[in-house]
Amino acid sequence: MSTMPLTTRGRYAVLAAAFGALLFDGLELGLMPLVSLSVSKSLLGAAYTPTLGGDWFARFTAALMAGAAIGGIALGALGDRIGRTRAMGISIICYSVFAGLGAWVTAQEQMLVLRFAVGLGVGGVWPNAVALVAESWPDKSRPVVAGLMGAAINSGILLLSQVAQMRPVTPESWRWLFYLAGAPALLGILVLILLPESPTWLASRGRTMGPKPPAPLRELFRPPLLHVTLVGIMLGSIPLVGAWAASKWMIPWADEIGRAVRSDYKAVTQGWWAAGAILGSLIGAQIAALLGRRLSYFLISIGSFVLTWAMFQMTAPLQASFLPIVFAQGLVATLFFGWLPLYLPELFPTAVRATGSGISYNVGRFATAVGVLAAGALFTALGGSYPRVGAAASFIYGLGILVIWLAPETKRQSLAQ
Q1: For 8-192+215-406, which CATH superfamily applies?
Q2: Which of 255, 296, 373, 395 has the fewest CB atoms within 10 Å, i.e. the most exposed one?
């Protein structure tokens, strides 16, 4: 069965919808680092302490990551079965509805459950959006569109930081942000109704008519794909654990120290980080295309470790050097997130591409959930020291220096398979 490629209008519609899905994905990801301490102060009342606030920040993050891991695997597999477009639309509606419900919580435990449910949709968007765009655009365009996919998430974080600077988030005023986070459900509905499907996926359905094809998960965890699946999981895990167990501690740290001087200092800090992150995500795929997949990941790992450690040990909130280092760390550490949308689809054949990409990216979120909880316990053990827990967790990036040499080089590989 042959399937006509998408028209130019169809390709741009796919790109715009996937960018929007990931942009709002980023908004959901950036929400709790920005609002967590305000939520905890509001809901805990007199029981609140700075150490308890940090502990709840870790719990909220771990719940989101666990949900994203499950959602990425389950909804990535769904994308291989029913289509990238439908699975992406379902994922958008999922994260929007459960985020919006956060405006009505009255207890920390309720928010914890909702953050897990938001994570299901957050995890499902990434593999389906990346597979859909990669399969809808020609190979020569993939470094550019992969960079846009990586930049989309961080654009959402930047958008959130700018909104929060216009209306500061406080213990008395935070629920409005959750109303905002529910609005992208409209995009999910439009995706389900109007967006064209991947022609590569449609063609693969024609090739597998007849006997029922093997389940994607079964295919990924047996030869010949077992090795690349395990490598993909490791390469996807390191940036995620580094981002959430290490660098994201800078936001509550900035809130704790800076709010006495500027009520919006945490939003300003997130904005500087997101500005660097957008640039890093945009050029990460270009660097991978120029230097090769392995060398680029190796160099990004070194830079991420050095800058994350420096952010927590060589500066501090309100110091003149803090925001520039936050910007640099955001730029370098998010080069990974331009690299991953380019590389992960290259590891897997069409029939299991969304599942394989989802497994690689989202099993890392299981590791992240564990890592964040461990970092939260370490935070408490270190007496609530943000610099010490951030510096200790930065060493996760060092693993990337070694793991990348187990991965195949796919620089000249086509997705037409």
Answers
A1: MFS general substrate transporter like domains (1.20.1250.20)
A2: 395
364, 204, 289, 29: CA torsion to nearest 10: -30
Tell me what pLDDT residue 272 has.
Answer: 94
**Sign of the dihedral through C-alpha 361, 367, 368, 369:** positive
Our measurement of the distance from residue 125's CA atom to the centroid of its chain's CA atoms, rounded to an integer in Å, reads: 10
Largest interatomic CA distance in the chain = 67
Nearest to 293 by CA among 349, 237, 231: 231
What are all long-range contacts of 223-231, with beta carbons under 8 Å and residues at least 24 apart?
Answer: 225/348, 225/352, 225/356, 228/347, 228/348, 228/356, 228/408, 229/347, 229/356, 229/359, 229/360, 231/347, 231/403, 231/406, 231/407, 231/408
Q: Single out the residue of 191, 266, 180 nearest to residue 15, CA to CA.
A: 191
List 173's β-bridge partners, or say none: 170
Using the structure block, give the residue that is written with the tokens 């830079």: 303
For the four alpha carbons of 303, 306, 308 and 311, in that order, the dihedral sign comes to negative
Closest CA relative to residue 386, chosen from 246, 268, 243, 260:
246
| pLDDT tens-place string over residues 362-408 | 777 788 788 888 888 888 888 888 899 889 889 999 999 999 999 88
Whether the predicted model's global pTM rises above the 0.85 cut: no
What residues are paired with 170 via a beta bridge?
173
